[in-house]
Amino acid sequence: MTTTDVLTGPAASVHPRTAPARIWNVVRLHLVDRRTYIGIPWLIVGLAFVITVFIAQIIGFTTGGLGTPEAIEGQRYSWAVLSPQWYLIVVGVQAISFGFPLALGFGVTRRDFYLGTALLFVLISAANALAFAVLTQLEQLTNGWYMHTYMFNALWLGVDGFWVDLFSFFVMQLLVFFIGASVATIYMRWRMSGMLVFWSALALTIVGTITLITFTSSWPTVAIWLAAQGIAGIFAWLLVPAAVAGFGGFLALRRATPKN
Amino acid sequence: MTLTDTDTAVRVVGLTKKFGTFTAIDDVSFTVERNKIYGLLGRNGAGKTTLMQLLTGQQFATSGTLDVFGASPVENARVLQSVCFIKESQKYPDSFRADHVFASAPWFFANWDAAFAARLVDDFRLPLKRPIKKLSRGQLSAVGVIVGLASRAPLTFFDEPYLGLDAVARQIFYDRLLEDYAEHPRTVILSTHLIDEVSNLLEHVLVIDEGRILMDQDADELRGTASTVVGKKTDVDAFVAGRDVISRDGIGGLASVTVGGLGEAERAAARAAGLELSPVSLQQLIVQRTTSTTATTASPASPASPTIDPTVTKIDAWSARS
Q1: Radius of gyration of chain B (CA)
Q2: CB proximity B312 to A under 8 Å
């Protein structure tokens, strides 16, 4: 028997699946427990909303009335709208750290697993972006849910209109998922030494950039540049780190092995 | 060997896997025929799990070639769709319950039998709605066993499937595996230390130690390679003189000696000499063979038979680790 006989041997599976079907099955695997990507994040949003209502009432009571332009502006500083993101970055980590070993046990290739996981991130990010952009509009239309309570019109949301909200939230959500996933992937591929190199390189890059800007007295230039980009422009730039994390994660995972 | 490619599930030639300076798998070559049950036997740290991870594309080989169903399994969707490998230490997503595993498994295993899975859940009394991280060791093993059985993957691995399972559950596993294998033949590779418990299941034995294959033999042939001669010490000594003595044991004037390769005529001669012949258990045989191989690595002919005490100690050490 020669090597070529071995290589042209018949497939063992009676129902081989196509690549799109295999990738979609990875999406379904991540979503088989609906709580992870849908249930718990929206539960957090709900809880944050209830807390926001209470806090708004307290502020209204002590400052003598909600609904004034100052009160509405004051509520912009609330981070309640981003409350599920801290949980979702952990979900991004676990998509790799738990999802990858299980997918390999189910006979999934690394490539199919990563493409399926990336597709899931894009779909969930799009759904969340649409939901939050719509809720931001509803909040404006109802004058803060008929009680002058603003949670979604906060930070940069509700400033430049529906489409900018949709785009910016989509990019932000994608970045959250892919940063979590790429950190977990670096650990999966290089373990502890990978973490040490990654975090020290990141810290040095940040400190180095700040030092460079400070020593060249460039902070006013940076501020002017950021202002010129606008909200949409800044989030368009954030697509760059999201893409780097996404493609870098793919390259790292192609040679990663699950822990024993 | 006159194997054709359709008979071969796995073909490994000169496979080596190194982790840094540690050689986990050391220049291993063997083939696995289709539709047979293989026992992958060896002590802890012998390289069983690493070998199975290499065969399923979870680890990358350092050198050598490795074909599963005719091609490298690494990143090969066609091959991997036919493979099921739930590790003994398999990780599941944090919030997963057993029902999540059984709901998603059919998407990856074309031959999945949901009714069979449901029956196995009842057999093992597995709580479906309890988070996996709260399951006992035995229940966790049951999850992997059920996936392995119900997936009916053409190449199925069971990695120490009995861990934490009680005697009843282990028997259920062996019974269901044999029943289902008879109806749906497939290639099964079972890694275990409990050799005697599975010895009736196994058709072929691969013994691995320190990353090397020590034994690659048909289970029945292996059983026939040795027998134990029991009788008066003087008679036994006279009979075994000049034979391949595998191990020796005795109390007072009685001796029990395991010797290799007795033919029919020799067996008759032994009986005529008033000696009793008893079959050797697969576990004993493998322990004795691997122990003597380890003790006399340099000279495979094993001229000096091991004395009683070290053998016994090593058998104990083996059992204690199981």
Answers
A1: 22
A2: no
Say how far apart CA B234 and CA B248 lie, in whole Å. Answer: 13
Query: Helices B167-183 and B137-151 sit at what angle, rounded to 10 degrees?
Result: 10
pTM, to two decimals: 0.87
Q: Kindly report the three-state secondary structure assignment for every residue of A4-67.
A: HHHHCCCCCCCCCCCHHHHHHHHHHHHHCCHHHHHHHHHHHHHHHHHHHHHHHHHHHHHHCCCC
DSSP H or E stretch at residue A131: helix A110-141
**CA dihedral angle for residue B234, residue B236, residue B241, residue B247, rounded to 10 degrees:** -120
Instruction: Name which of A17, A90, A106, A191 to mutate to probe chain B: the one with the most chain B Cβ atoms within 10 A of its Cβ.
Output: A106
Sheet containing strand B83-86, edge to edge, reads B83-86, B155-159, B187-192, B37-41, B204-209, B212-218
Does the distance separating the beta carbons of A107 and B83 come in below 8 Å? yes
CA distance A103 to A26: 8
Of A13, A94, A105, the CB nearest to B82: A13
Q: How far is it, in rounded angstroms, from Cα B67 to Cα A50?
A: 59
- Residues B239 and B273: their CA atoms lie apart, in Å, by 8
Closest chain B residue by Cα to residue A95: B93
Note the residue count of chain A. Answer: 260
Distance CA B126, CA B129 (A): 9
Q: What is the bridge-based pairing of β-strands B155-159 and B187-192?
A: parallel
Q: What is the pLDDT of residues B52-65, one digit of tens each?
A: 999 999 999 999 99
CA B191 to chain centre: 4
This complex has an ipTM of 0.88
CATH number listed for the domain at residues B5-218: 3.40.50.300
Q: Is B156 on the interface with A (CB under 8 A)?
A: no
DSSP A149: -
Is the Cβ pair B56, A12 closer than 8 Å?
no
**Closest approach of B277 to chain A, Cα-based (Å):** 42
Residue A1: its pLDDT value, please? 40
Sheet holding B22-33, edge to edge: B22-33, B8-19, B63-68
Q: Residue B113 carries which DSSP code?
A: -
- Per residue in B170-189, pLDDT (tens digit) is 999 999 999 999 999 999 99
Break chain B into its structural domains and give their ranges: 5-218, 225-321
For residues B130 and B98, is the Cβ–Cβ distance under 8 A? yes
Q: Which residues pair with B98 in a beta bridge?
A: none
